[in-house]
Amino acid sequence: MRQLTTRCAQLPGHSKIAMRLAFKFCLAAATLLVVSGTSYANDLIVRYDQSQLLRLPRAISQIIIGNPSIADASVQASNLLVVTGKTFGVTNIIALDQQGNVIQDQRVIVQRDTVRMVNLHKGSQRQSFTCAPECTPTVTIGDDTDYFAKISDHAQKKTKFSSGQSDGGGQ
Questions:
Q1: pLDDT higher at 20 or 123
Q2: What are the pLDDT digits (tens) for 11-29?
Q3: In-domain check, residue 127
Q4: SS3 label, residue 3
Q5: Helix, strand, or coil here: 39?
Q6: How many separate domains does the chain show?
Q7: Are 105 and 122 part of one and the same domain?
Q8: Percent of the chain topping pLDDT 90
């Protein structure tokens, strides 16, 4: 925004009318940039494969998820939902009370956690890594098919091993 303001102030022209018009144009352009964002202040942003808490003003009786393939929700306490991002996209969650009244219709946006993600591109193939602070392979929708299958297989074996259901493969 500061760069846009600086550039607008440096526009050529000597008349006051031209400067005023240029300033109004730049102000309108800056406003358009701010307003054209993809999410709104009341949207619930959930990172892919992570969860967020959503506290509601009164007890929940039923929840409806617009697209269960994008996000999942479970009631943790009478007025607390745990929302988990399952894949990228936008959906909504409607919470109802015992009388069937809408408590809240919440838009949910599931996004990738780009702060800790590194992508390795080999031609048209992509491999994803989570770096926090050391980089480890992770599966992300859109990764190379073979890489995705290999890392998913390793993750499933690790989960089985942790729960005591190891198949003895070790790899």
A1: 123
A2: 454 466 655 655 555 455 4
A3: yes
A4: helix
A5: coil
A6: 3
A7: no
A8: 44
| Residue 168 resides in a domain | no
Extract the tokens encoding 46: 């959930």
d(CA 49, CA 88): 10
User: pLDDT per residue over 48-107, tens digit each?
Assistant: 889 999 999 999 999 999 999 999 999 999 999 999 999 889 999 999 999 999 999 999
Residue with tokens 């102030």: 9
**Residues 103 and 51 reside in one and the same domain:** yes
Q: What is the mean pLDDT of residues 115-123?
A: 88
Coil, strand or helix at 76: strand
Task: Give pTM, 2 decimals.
Answer: 0.59
| 50 lies in the same domain as 107 | yes
Could you identify the residue written with the tokens 């990764």?
143
Do 102 and 131 share a structural domain? no
Q: How far apart are the first and last CA of the chain?
A: 51
Strands (E) in the chain, as ranges, are 44-47, 51-55, 62-65, 71-77, 80-85, 89-96, 102-111, 117-122, 125-131, 135-138
Distance CA 65, CA 130 (A): 28
Neighbours of 127 (CB within 10 A): 20
Nearest to 130 by CA among 142, 122, 139: 139
